[in-house]
Amino acid sequence: GLAELFVEVKKSQNWDSFNDPEPGADPSNHKFISEDNRPVGKKRVNRTVGEIASYAAELCARQHRTHCYSISVYGPTARIIRWDRSGAIVSESFDYHAHPKWLCQLVWRYSQASDSQRGFDMTVEKASSAEESMFAQVITDHIKKQVNSDENGLADLLDDHYEKNRVYKIAVHPQHPPDR
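Structure (tokenized):
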């Protein structure tokens, strides 16, 4: 969940759960996810797609992201995947032995990309010390209104709702100014 990008590696090309369209075919009618109807094939497809989707979901759940990237390697082939909250964009597979430059360029370009291009949500930033203190005080005041507790009990309750150095702020820009 704390990675910037993840790589899924399977030793065999049989684990690739995606189908590339034939050259020149209309991709709008193409079924990109494999429809292997054999019980073992369907289980393999579901497992592989589920695995990489769960990794992307974990990464986006633990970080403030608009999207993230992954590389899936199946034997001698690879795919690049861009994940966001509405789904994924999956590249056609390529043989990285025949075209090692493609994979090298991808990794180099990712390393040169800005945080925004890498998928980090730029509207979220770490709170300053003053903002974090203000947040802790607001939480403390709210807890005091809800329960009667001594200082030790209050500290325990505060620990349930606040973790030091883990406070972030999100810029909110209303489309219309509020009525005054």
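The longest strand covers residues 67-74. The mean pLDDT is 87.
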